[in-house]
Amino acid sequence: MLPQEIIAKLPSQYEKALASGDLFFFPSSVHHHYESGVEYEIRLCPALQKKPQLPPPDFSSTVETPKNDSKPFDPFAPPYNTGLFVGYLRDQRQDEEEYVILLNKYCVVPEHFLLVTKEFRLQSSPPTPDDLFNAYALIVAARKKLKNVIAFYNCGELSGASQAHKHLQLIEIEGDGPPIEAIARQIHLETPDKPFSVTRLPYANHVVRFPSNLATSKPEVVEGLLTQSFVSLMDLAISSIRYDVDYPSGKASYNVILTLEHMHIIPRQTDIYTLDTGSTLNINSLGFAGMFLVKSDEELEAVKKEGVTKILRAVGVGNVHDEQVKGVTED
Ligand code: B4P
């Protein structure tokens, strides 16, 4: 299926999966919280306390294969749950189907869906040019239907990922985009094609702004630009990590947020934050998009009291962007 066919099929497939019980929707309420000039969204979802506990992901494999009996269950391997299966995504460039589109079984926002590699690939491996191209193609297709969809990728053990089989996630955002996108748009760039950072945030965040015609550019241009953006942001993310003497050993973890206008990369040093109350939050890419998820009123109050910025700094790494890139000013 082409990206536009996937987008067109999502609403009916979602309704079907909900009705058949293949998909669980957890109702929530959104609370706005102002801090450091950012209007954060904190989503309170008590129903998630009833979500079944999934086994921890196994990121240890170094071989990109196979299921064997000692491997934990892979929900993204065939045979697919027919209720959650939207279709195989056809890549317009190669006329190939390397991805399957599945609905998120446990969703807080309706029609939250996953771009999953057909073959097993590790969630700790970087997004490939094909991954980025196809995620962007879905974002563009959604925009043509007047839907504001973003993609995100929780890469690595400390990024908030809960499944080891490679999957990017796509979610519809109300309004203009996630809070961090509003902030990124306000940054004045002297050299628009250079990476920049929201320097008033204390954690490392690396961003590239796309040319305004990217969505209508030729596929090879889109792929080239997304790849180049990723590579330049990863250079900065690794550099940020190297400033952090306490960064855990092993492969780096990071979050990628892809919108129609920007790519954001945020290096991570841990996935879990323990609130003063003792309760723990698992922070994924959406947290760094400015969208927090809490499961009780107590957690909501604790997050507001301790501060979103402090929490994000604790699970990210320090912002040393000024020392890395020159020629950028913030309005
Ligand atoms: P991961 O990258 O591995 O992890 P995650 O999004 O952080 O989800 P997690 O599983 O830790 O969920 P959480 O309770 O924190 O993504 C795996 C994805 O696969 C998830 O979307 C998961 O639901 C889905 N999945 C698992 N088993 C599946 C199966 N058998 N078939 C199909 N899909 C399956 O959060 C609950 C949900 O809320 C997650 O979807 C999360 O992405 C989402 N969420 C988090 N913060 C949010 C926010 N601020 N606003 C809206 N949604 C938010």
From TrEMBL:
Active site, UniProt feature: 167 (nucleophile)
Gene3D superfamilies registered for this protein in UniProt: 3.30.428.70
Domain Ap4A phosphorylase 1/2 N-terminal: 3-174
Record domain ATP adenylyltransferase C-terminal: where: 200-317
GO molecular function: ATP binding; ATP:ADP adenylyltransferase activity
Pfam family membership, one: ATP_transf
GO BP, sorted A to Z: nucleotide metabolic process
Record protein name field: ATP adenylyltransferase
